[in-house]
Structures are given as C-alpha cells and as structure tokens.
From TrEMBL:
It is a multi-pass membrane protein. This is Cation-transporting ATPase. Belongs to the cation transport ATPase (P-type) (TC 3.A.3) family. Type V subfamily. It comes from Chrysochloris asiatica (Cape golden mole). Its EC number is 7.2.2.-.
C-alpha cells in the first residue's frame, strides 16, 4: 500500500549508513480520523490495538499520501531485510522564541547565509523550521535541497582551513542561540522509563492479549482455577520482564547521566571565554581545554595544542592516546579526507577522558565542537543499545508459521463444533463458548513462555561460568555458530609483552642481538635515544602510563621521566615539556636528557608514530617507530640491512612481535609546529629491530582444537604483522602442520598500472639462527602440481582484503571459503570481513578483547567481549574470564537451549493436539472434559513438565555437527505429525472400543464389578452423585488416555545426548514424571468414589483399565521406536539426503562444491591483473545476515 509514490513523496534518510531508512510523506485527513475513532469505539478498542501492532496501517488509515514538503506525518521503513515500519509527526521550531534575546529578521545576515544546513532549514519570511525526531536524532527540512537532513554536527564538506577560519575564534552569541534552538540540547538523555509505561508496553504484547481473551473465556465457563494460575504466571512473567527492563533503563541512565552535567570553558567571538553548562554547547563552539582528567561532553576537533586521552569507553582498552591538532592546510578537500588515513587522531570523542591538555603558543588547547548529543560517538553507542538491530533467526519465524498452522487447525475444529452443537439444539451462547474453547485448546496460551524457559535456564548457567548476556534471545543463535573469528593480541595471546631483545643496525647489516635478560644496559647511541623518547607515555600523578609496548621499551632503557619546570630555559624547548633523563647509575651516557617537543601519534591506519626531540645540549632529532615494513619504506635504502626481510621473517615466524626504529637529524631553525609530517618522515636512517615476545594463553590451543574437532571454523582477524599472525595460527592449532598456507597479495591501481593479485605458497624451511634450529617463512618460487594438497589456508593483509573487495569481488567468496589469517586489519575492515562471512550464510561469532573490535562484535551474530570496559555493552555477551574458554561454553549452552526450545515446542504442540483430538471426539457425543479434568492436565501435568523439562544442562562435549536450526525441517515435522497420528489413532480406538463393551450403557453411571462376580453381573451405583452432562465412559477413557499420554510424550521428546545432558541426569524432571505417572495410575486403578466424583470420572471394570494401559504402552513403545530409530537417526537421514540428491543451499556449501570441482583452484605462483574498471564483479552473492538457507537434519 505504501510502495507507489510520486517524486517528492519518498526519500532516503541516512543514505548509505547502517540505519538507512525510507521516508514517505503523508497528510492527516479529518474525516479519516473521525472514521477511525468510530471504528475504535465499535471494535471495543481492538482497532487501536491493531494500529499499535501495525504502525503503517495507522498511517494509511488516518492519512493520505503527499509530498514530504507538505507532510505533517512521515512513515519510516528500514531498508534492511526486516522492513520495520514506524511513524513520526512533523514538528516546528519557531525562531520568534528568540526575539527576546536576538533581534532576527528575514534579511538578517545570519539568516540569509545559506552555506550551512541550519540556515537552509529556516523558512522565510515566517522564520520557522520543520523537523522530525527519529531514534533520538533531529532531522530538519532542507528548503534548498528538498529533503530531511541530520542536524547536530558540523558539515562534512568543511575543509580544515574553513574550520580554522570560521570557528577558530568561536561563535557569536546570536549564532549560538540559533544553533541551540535548532540543534537542541547537548545531552544524551536516557530517561528511566516509568514502570506504568513498561507495563502497558508489555501487556499490549499479542501473546498477553491472547491470554487475556483465554482467561475471560475460562471465567465465563467457571474454569477459575486454571484462569487464576495463568494470571499468576503472567503476572510473574510480566513482573520479571518489567523489572529487567527497568534495571537496564536505570543502568543506562547512570551510564550517561554524568555526561549531561559538566561545566566547560567556551570562547565566544565577542564575549570572550566564559564558563557554560555542557548541555548548552552547539556544533561550532570553541572549547578551551584546561587542566587534567576532564570528561568530554561532545565530539570536538582539536585545532590547537595537544591532548592525551583515555578512550577506554569507546575501545575497551584504557591506554592513553595522543591527539594532535588539525593542520591548517589550504585545500578544497574535506577535512576528514585531508587528514591522511586517520582523521580520528584530531578528534576528541564524547565520553572519553582528557588526561592531559597542553597548549602551544596560546598556552591552552582549543577544540571546535564537532557533534553534540546523540550524534556523538558515545551517543551512537547508547543508541545502538536503545535501538538494537532486530534478530531474524529462522526458529522464531518458523514458530510463528507453526502457530498459524495451529490457528488453522483450531478454525477447522470451530466449524466442526458449531455444526455438531447447532444440530444437537444447544443454546447459542453455549455453542459460541464451546467453539471459542477450541482455540484455547489448539493454541496453548503457555506456548511462548515454554519456549523461553530453556533460554532462561541457559542464561543462569552461563552466569555461573562468568558469562553475562544482555540479549538472551541470542543464546539460541549460539547453537548455530559454525565460524568463530578471534582477535589475536589479548584474546589468543597474552596482553603483556616481554622485551626479548633488540637487533641494532650498522650500515647495511645487523649487529648481534642485545638481550635484556642479561641485565647489561644498552650502550648509548641513537637506538638507545629512540627507545627512551619515541613513545606516547605520559607522567600522571608520578606514575608513567601508556601503551604496554611503549612501557616495556622505556623500562628497558632504565631512564626516568620528568616534566620540565618554569625555570627550564633551553632554546626551542617549551616549559612543561616531557623530558626523559638517564638514571643516576648510568655513568656512560654523555647527555643530560632528551626533551620531547612534538608527537605525530601512532595510528593503526598509518602503522607508525614519530616524535621530534631535542637532545639537551645537542642536536634536534626525529625518531620513528612502527611496523618494520612501513618504517623501512621511509628510510634511505643504503641504511636498511640487506638481510632485513629474512631476519624479519625469522622472528615473526617464531611468533615474536617486531618493531622497527629509525631516526634523522633536523635543522633547529624551523619551528616544530611548522614542520609537516611528510617532511619529517623522509630520508630516515634505519636503527634496528625491537623484538618483543607475545605468548599464547595456555587455554588457547585446547579451545581451538575443541572447536576444530567440532568442525567449527576458526579465523584470526588481527591488526598485527601477517607473518606473526601465521605463526600464532600454526602454534595455536588453527592451522595444522601438514596444511599449506597460500599468501595473497593484492595491490590497487597505481598510475597506469592496473590492480593486481598474486598467490604464493608459504613453505616452512629449516635454518640455523644463532646456533639453534628454528623455522622461518619462505616463499616457494616453484611448486609442482603434484605438491598441491587439498587442505590449504589463505592468509592476507587488510590492504589486500580491501583491494580484493574493490577490484576482484568475484574472487572474494572463493578466498573467504579458505581464508584463515587476516592481518593488519583496521576496525572497519574487521566489521566488513564479518559481514562478508555472513553473506556466505555462515553463522559468525566474534571474540575480542574490546580494543578495536566493537564494530565486529556488534556486526557478528554472536559477539563475545573479553573486556569489562563500557565498550562491552555493545556486545551481546561479556566474559569475566579473559580467555577464549567462554566460546565453547557458549556454543554448548546455545546448542542445549536450541534443542530445549525444539523439545518444548514439540511437546506443547502435541499436548494441545492431544487435548484437541480428545475434546473433538467427545463433542461428537455432545460431551466434553470437565473443568477439573482440564485443570489436572493443564496445571498438574503440563505446567510442571514445562518448568522442569528444560533443566537439562549442556552436554560437555562438542560434536561435529549442529542441531537443526529450523522448526520446518523434515525430521521435526515428521516427529510431530507421526505422534499426532499415533495419539489420534489411540484416542479413536479407545473411543470406539469403549462403546462396544458389554457393560457400556448410556444410562450407567458406574461399571465396577463386585468381587468374584462375572462381567455380566454388574451393579449400578445410584448413590454416587455425578455430573450428568460430563460424566460418561467415553469421557473417562479419553481423559486417562490423554493425561497419561502427555506424560509419556514428555519422556519421548526430552532429548539428551549429543547436545544436552542425558534425561536421567535431570533429576527434578524424572521425579516429576514418576510422581505424575504414579498418581495417574493410582487414580486409574483406585476405586475411591469421592475421588472419581471430584474428577467427573466413572468407575470401569479392571480389565478395561488394563486395556487402557496396554493402549498407552503400545503407543509409547511405537512413539519411542519412531523417535529413536527414525527421527534421531542421523545416519538414516544422511542416506535419505544422498538418495534424493539433496545439497545444502547455504552459499558457503555451494562455493565449496564449486571449488572442489575446479582443478585450477587455488592458483599458485600466479599474478592476475584487473584490466577493466569493473573487473572482478561478475559474481553477485548476498543473503540476509541473520538467515541461513541450510536445512540440517
């Protein structure tokens, strides 16, 4: 209905972003509103309820389509596979509200300047702004471009020169007032949701509405006991849910409330510096940063001075990061593109803590407010929690389809009931009650609750193991994981690094390795100076803080760190500069110290950092530290040792982390702030290699072996060196010794050279290194075809991954099928890789320590954070134990919860069908079950089974296959259908046979034989009071068959190995079944008139009771044999699949079959070129992220 729109009636909001939406314009019509109001009254409130469940219907009923410019209501639809609808009213901001403080007219210069979105949003001459608010973000109507645009941040097109010019002196008071009114307050305001709101939202759930309908019906039929039981369970369920939601709301509120009440110093263009509450900040304001330990209340671009920031809230890693000012470059390129590879090194993010702020000439650090409120980095994180991506797991969709089938079955039963009772002359109100009863029987109100019990128990078991979950529904998804990505540092390997040694360079060759374990200090020289000064360490409260690598390097020099005082007067060295000095014991160091003048900080994109230092009483130098290949590329070729590549391979192969150092002398007549990074980082002299040891965590190898034996793929995604990553993959067992590794190197277009991709086989060779025999990586130049093995892994860097994605996209799925090691990956590339795996229909888990992994943790089906920092709130699972042991635990519990959900679904479906069949048979005789009979089945049998059946824990061993991920799978459907047919057959046999018994008579109220009397000598007991409309031999037979069958089915459907603990270990469940069975058999064989009267049963001959037991035993035996020999017989289903030529429809399975038949794959020692602009784009593959087409048996 909302798909046919003319131009101007539809647009895209947040185009190209993760939260992209379609927006449609509508105008409210009075007569439609009146019509809907009348409909709401006549439907007794059902119409508004339908509109609440279906927002699009609300808009279509109340409004008519129009252009977005004229719309007073907009309909929003997400562009993902979920197509979720919502609607918002278009609101107005009136600038006339500012007339008391600002004299504004349509021709005011601030209004007529249409360079900025804020000005374009102001309608003239009435000076008002149209806007909508979607997921806490304001979007204003751009009158010039005719669309809604996000407000609350500086425009992306701004150049660095424009930012310095326009905002470098601050905003005027008028500009501040206008921006404040249009952009809204700078607050991340998460209100604590009132309990009444949470209650209403929960109660209006369709499931509870159905329960309300059922309860009302039961009260009308005087079925009060079970109605009260359902009410009690619903109240407890709603209460627990509301409590959890309330606690989450409070926790999130406390997480952000401190951000909203910070006092900051703001510099105005005319007003000068003044203190201001942070909620009044607007984009473009000039912040003055003074003092230490200041929480950032917004995102801001540093334009002057330098800052050391703790970004633990965003990255999960509390390592101080140095921020540098945005250079004032005359260029037309936007400032983000202009800032080389990583613009974030100039941005102070909201929620992070400025540990240290230093000014340059102006004596204060200054920053321009970039984004405010929910537009900020912290705001984005909070919004991702408030509005999580919906999860489209097939289990839940299949459950809805199955419910629809049950509703269809109930409809047939209703028609049958109407026909039977109308023809028998029953009163109309009784006929309607009986017909509605069929719905509550065929569709059990307790079904959704029963499905979640397994998840609740699994969540509790995970909490005991130190694994916490903020999205319980994802526990079931854990059971489907077949690929897990791991970060390396801090996840597979220890966080801490040990400095193993340093290999100095002399001329074009390496010298002997200097080992720090000997206790001998490193001789004075440029290498020692580089280790002492080329870092981002800071001195805070007398403690040296910073990156662990930098700390280890600095500690190895035994130097000390200090801050220069006001009386520190050396040419070119400012006061309060960081100074490193040799310790008093170091007598052979000829310098007094080294002052660190300027830093070009490290970034993962640039893979290096550089510092400019002044040797006290000596030269001005520049030192560089970073990835060896990167540092060597900036050095004079003659200073790089000829054995550089081979030596690097030796140490990275052994799993060491290798860092290169280089330096150059600088002229002292240049001011340090005038020196561009590009000029400093040229013609360097190579100094040597720093070798650090990063050991595997002891839990890593056993866990990876366990996952491998369970045929769960493991992939490494790291920001570290490729060869180090390959070695760690070998050592950890991710890649076995006998498996080949193929190195993929892809290069983008360069000038006239097209993009290229090469494939080289990595071979292990033996070589002697310093008297010991070790392995190192070597590229084999020639490989014969016979040497190629089927088992191989691809290894590539983030740069190669990017080039393949852009220029060789048809090769990407082929590479991902066997891609195991992905090194030098940026955070964005990690997220992209996870998404690409999902497109291949893998169920992807991501395990990281929180540092740089937030995006990938959010993108994966299951994100597991090993960090307890605030960044972990973006991850569904957080482990208190900082190793990967949590991964198999999570998969085991996920599999157990998934199987439990299936068991409960099958049981609840069959229980409802058993009751349904029994009641319809009794309806044939215009009979039914009594309230107490229903109560016994519903409460004493099914409810207790529903609570205890899910208590089975996870099986301790991971098997090499997953449980089925779908309800609509042949084995499961066959199981349900066969058991329904068996129950139907048993009920019909009992129903027919009882009427053929010689003692059967419609007038009889008892058929119990006197002791030693024959069956023909029956005594009718008129003394026992009975309910004449209910009690009958058919009723008694059907009730016993149905009740005991419910207990037997629970035992048949309760699955144990290979995904859950054996049923006999679920002691409570077994005890419940034994008590229930004993009670039922006692009632069956006990001749207690009062008990029979209470349950509206008739006494039958002992022989007939034996027949009932025989029928039930036969049914149980057949059901058990069918379940074990056919349904749970995996080997049989595999044979059936082969016979019918079934192949998995999952993309990765299709690609595996294609590649297995391709003799030319994988290519070895080949280089392919991309000659055409659109080359490599011949293959299109895309599937919804949260789906898998794989049908498993």
């Amino acid at each position: 209905m909302g798909d046919h729109f003319e131009k101007g009636q539809r647009a895209l909001l947040n185009e190209g972003e993760e939260n992209e939406m379609e927006i449609f314009g509508y105008q409210t019509q009075a007569w439609r509103k009146a019509f809907c109001l009348v409909g709401s009254i006549f439907s007794l409130g059902m119409l508004p309820l339908v509109f609440y469940w279906r927002p699009a219907w609300h808009v279509w009923a109340h409004c008519v389509s129009c252009s977005l410019q004229e719309a007073d209501v907009v309909l929003l639809r997400t562009t993902d596979e979920f197509q979720t609808y919502s609607w918002k009213r278009v609101m107005w901001i009136y600038l006339s509200a500012l007339n008391s403080t600002v004299d504004l007219t349509p021709d005011h210069p601030l209004i007529t300047d249409e360079e900025y979105i804020i000005n374009r949003a102001i309608s003239k001459p009435d000076l008002k702004v149209r806007y909508i608010k979607v997921q806490k973000i304001r979007y204003v109507w751009n009158n010039l471009e005719g669309n809604f645009q996000k407000i609350g941040s500086l425009e992306d097109w701004l150049t660095s020169a424009k930012i310095h010019l326009k905002f470098g002196s601050g905003l005027t008071r008028e500009e501040q007032e206008i921006r404040r009114l249009i952009c809204g307050p700078n607050t991340i305001d998460v209100e604590i949701t009132p309990i009444w709101k949470l209650l209403i939202k929960e109660v209006l759930n369709a499931f509870y509405i159905f329960q309300l309908f059922s309860v009302c019906l039961w009260f009308s039929e005087d079925y009060k006991e079970y109605a009260f039981a359902i009410i009690l369970m619903s109240v407890i369920s709603i209460g627990l849910t509301v409590y959890d939601l309330r606690q989450q709301s409070i926790k999130l509120h406390h997480l952000v409330e401190s951000h909203n009440s910070i006092t900051v110093s703001v510099c105005g263009r005319k007003a000068g510096v003044q203190d201001l509450e942070s909620c009044f900040l607007v984009p473009g304001d000039l912040l003055i940063l003074t003092g230490n330990k200041v929480k950032m209340p917004c995102d801001a671009i540093l334009i002057d001075g330098s800052c050391v920031v703790d970004e633990g809230m965003l990255t999960g890693e509390s390592i101080p990061v140095t921020k540098t000012p945005l250079p004032k470059i005359e260029s037309l390129a936007p400032w983000k593109i202009q800032s080389e590879a990583d613009y974030k090194r100039h941005v102070l993010f909201c929620g992070t803590e400025v540990v240290q702020a230093k000014g340059t000439c102006s004596m204060t650090a200054r920053a321009v407010v970039l984004q405010t409120g929910f537009n900020t980095a912290k705001g984005d994180l909070v919004r991702s929690i408030l509005y999580p991506k919906p999860m489209n797991f097939k289990l839940y969709r299949d459950a809805m389809r199955f419910l629809l089938c049950l509703i269809g079955t109930a409809t047939i039963g209703m028609i049958y009931t109407l026909c039977v009772f109308v023809l028998s002359g029953e009163l109309p109100e009784e006929v309607v009650k009986k017909a509605l009863d069929v719905i509550t029987i065929a569709v059990p109100p307790a079904l959704p609750a029963a499905l979640t019990t397994g998840i609740i128990y699994a969540q509790r078991r995970l909490q005991k193991k130190g694994i916490f979950c903020i999205s319980p529904q994802r526990i079931n998804v854990c059971g489907q994981l077949n690929l897990v990505c791991f970060d390396k540092t801090g996840t597979l390997t220890n966080d801490g690094l040990n400095l193993w040694g340093v290999m100095p360079s002399d001329g074009n060759s390496f010298q002997e390795v200097h080992s720090f374990t000997s206790g001998k200090p490193l001789p004075w020289g440029p290498l020692c100076a580089a280790m002492a000064s080329c870092h981002s360490l800071i001195l805070l409260d007398g403690t040296i803080q910073g990156d662990p690598l930098d700390l280890k390097m600095f500690e190895a020099t035994t130097w000390e760190m200090d801050i220069s005082g006001d009386n520190f007067h050396i040419k070119g060295v400012p006061a309060h500069a960081m100074v490193v000095k040799p310790c008093k014991a170091a007598i052979q160091v000829p310098v007094e110290g080294i002052a660190i003048l300027h830093q070009f900080p490290f970034s993962s994109a640039l893979q290096r950092m550089t510092v400019i230092v002044q040797v006290i009483g000596g030269d001005r130098l520049a030192f560089m530290k970073g990835a060896p290949e990167k540092v060597a590329s900036f050095c004079q070729a003659e200073t790089v040792p000829t054995s550089f590549a081979s030596e690097l391979q030796i140490y990275t192969t052994l799993g060491f982390r290798v860092i290169a150092l280089a330096y150059k002398k600088l002229e002292t007549n240049h001011h340090i702030t005038a020196l561009m990074r590009e000029k400093v980082e040229t013609d360097l002299i190579f100094l040597g290699l720093l070798i650090l040891e990063n050991q595997l965590k002891e839990e890593t190898k056993p866990v990876l072996e366990e996952l491998s034996s369970a045929q769960i793929r493991t992939v490494m995604i790291t920001g570290d060196n490729l060869q180090t990553a390959i070695t760690v993959a070998r050592k950890s067992g991710m890649i076995y010794e006998n498996q080949k590794i193929i190195l993929i190197e892809a290069n983008g277009t360069s000038g006239s050279s097209p993009a290229s991709i090469s494939w080289k086989l990595v071979e292990e060779k033996k070589t002697i290194v310093y008297g010991s025999q070790d392995n190192y990586i070597n590229i084999r130049e020639e490989v014969s075809g016979s040497d190629k093995e089927e088992s191989y892994h691809f290894a590539l860097t983030g740069q190669s991954f990017q080039v393949v994605s852009q220029h060789f996209s048809s090769l990407l799925p082929k590479i991902l099928i066997n891609g195991t090691v992905f090194a030098r990956m940026s955070p964005g590339q990690k997220s992209s890789l996870v998404e690409e795996f999902q497109k291949l229909d893998y169920f992807v888990g991501m395990c990281g320590d929180g540092a740089n992994d937030c995006g990938a943790l959010k993108m994966a089906h299951v994100g597991i954070s090993l960090s307890e920092q605030e960044a972990s709130v973006a991850s569904p699972f957080t482990s208190k134990t900082p190793n990967i042991e949590c991964v198999p635990h999570l998969i085991k519990e996920g599999r157990a919860a998934l199987v439990t959900s299936f068991c409960m679904f099958k049981y609840m479906a069959l229980y409802s069908m058993i009751q349904y069949v029994g009641v319809l048979l009794l309806y044939w005789k215009t009979n039914s079950l009594s309230n107490y009979q229903f109560l016994f089945q519903d409460l004493a049998i099914t409810t207790l089974i529903g609570i205890t059946m899910s208590l089975n824990g996870a099986y301790p061993k991971l098997v090499p296959y997953r449980p089925a991920g779908r309800l609509i799978s042949p084995p499961l459907l066959l199981s349900v259908i066969l058991n329904i047919l068996l129950s139907l057959a048993m009920h019909i046999v009992g129903f027919v046979l009882v009427q053929k018994q010689p003692w059967y008579s419609m007038e009889m109220r008892s058929a119990c034989t006197v002791k030693n009397a024959s069956i023909s000598e029956l005594i009718i007991s008129p003394t026992v009071p009975t309910n004449g409309t209910i009690t009958s031999f058919e009723n008694t037979t059907i009730w016993f068959l149905g009740t005991i069958n419910c207990i037997m089915v629970a035992l048949v459907f309760s699955k144990g190995k290979p995904f859950r603990q054996p049923t006999y270990k679920n002691y409570i469940f077994v005890l419940v079944l034994v008590i229930q069975m004993s009670l039922c058999l006692f009632i069956l064989f006990a001749d207690i008139p009062d008990l029979y009267w209470r349950l509206d049963l008739l006494c039958t001959p002992v022989l007939w009771r034996v027949y009932i037991v025989i029928m039930l035993s036969s049914n149980f035996f057949v059901s058990l044999v069918v379940e074990e020999a056919i349904i749970e017989n995996r080997a049989l289903w595999m044979v059936i699949k082969r016979c019918f030529g079934y192949h998995s429809k999952s993309q990765y399975r299709i690609w595996q079959r294609v590649l297995a038949k391709d003799p030319s794959w994988p290519p070895l020692n080949q280089t392919s070129y991309c000659d055409m602009p659109g080359c490599g784009r011949g293959v299109s593959y895309s599937n919804p992220v949260f789906e898998s087409n794989e049908e498993q048996f």
